[in-house]
Amino acid sequence: QRYAVILSTGGGLYRYHLHDVIEIVGRVNQCPLIRFAGRHQHVSDWFGEKLNEAYVTRVLREAFGSAGVSPSFAMLACDRALPSPAYVLYIDTAEPDALLEHVARSIEAELCRAYHYKYARLLGQLAPVRVFRAPGGSERYLMVAVQNGQRAGGVKPPALDRRDGWSQAL
Fold first, then answer.
1. Is pLDDT at 7 greater than 70 in this prediction?
2. Which of 35, 36, 45, 170 is the most buried (most CB within 10 A)?
3. d(CA 146, CA 121)
């Protein structure tokens, strides 16, 4: 199951909603094994597609798992500067182009299961998912985040970034 994480004191007086979504993936004795599933309120919505990071995290994990791809960096973000705006898979891997195109088609098929994304595609507001090789993507993402005022220790590259312009930055 999936859960939202909230921190509080033992008495429950102070609460801090982290907006992280975790899922229980198993147990060791009585201790749950958890996996970070994404940010609860992290939604990308340029054309009404309403993609949630937790959903995109799962889509990427399944697409990479079924293709046997283990990228050192992978992120989905919309690029509105393209002739036809589209979500782009920014990825750092040595896998061949043909395999990455297969992964992109798999991601596109799964995203089209989300009603609002599919509708934006049907209206022609979005083109299919594209692939962009981003060698050193993790380091470049960190550099951009720090330049935008984030502390380096607090930066986690997301599976889905709501900002535009990553094709120029990566």
1. yes
2. 170
3. 34
DSSP-derived secondary structure letter, 88: E
Please list, in sequence order, all residues whose beta carbon lies within 8 angstroms of the beta carbon of residue 6, skipping any fewer than 6 positions away.
15, 16, 17, 18
Question: Which alpha helices (H) appear in the chain, and where do they start and end?
Answer: 53-67, 97-111, 115-122, 137-147, 166-169
- For the stretch 78-119, pLDDT in tens is 999 999 999 999 999 999 999 999 999 999 999 999 999 999
Would you say 146 and 37 are in contact if contact means Cβ atoms under 8 Å apart? no
Q: Which amino acid is at 58?
A: R
Task: Please answer whether residues 34 and 98 qualify as being in contact, where contact means their C-beta atoms are separated by less than 8 angstroms.
Answer: no
Q: Which residue has the tokens 């470049």?
A: 140
Q: At residue 1, what is the residue type?
A: Q
Bin 165: left if φ > 0, else alpha if -120 < ψ < 50, else beta.
left
Rounded distance between C-alpha atoms, residue 83 and residue 85, angstroms: 6
pTM above 0.90? no
Closest CA to 158 of 34, 26, 41: 41
Burial of 74 (0-12, 13-18, 19+ CB in 10 A): buried
Residue with tokens 């709501």: 162
Which amino acid would we find at residue 106?
S
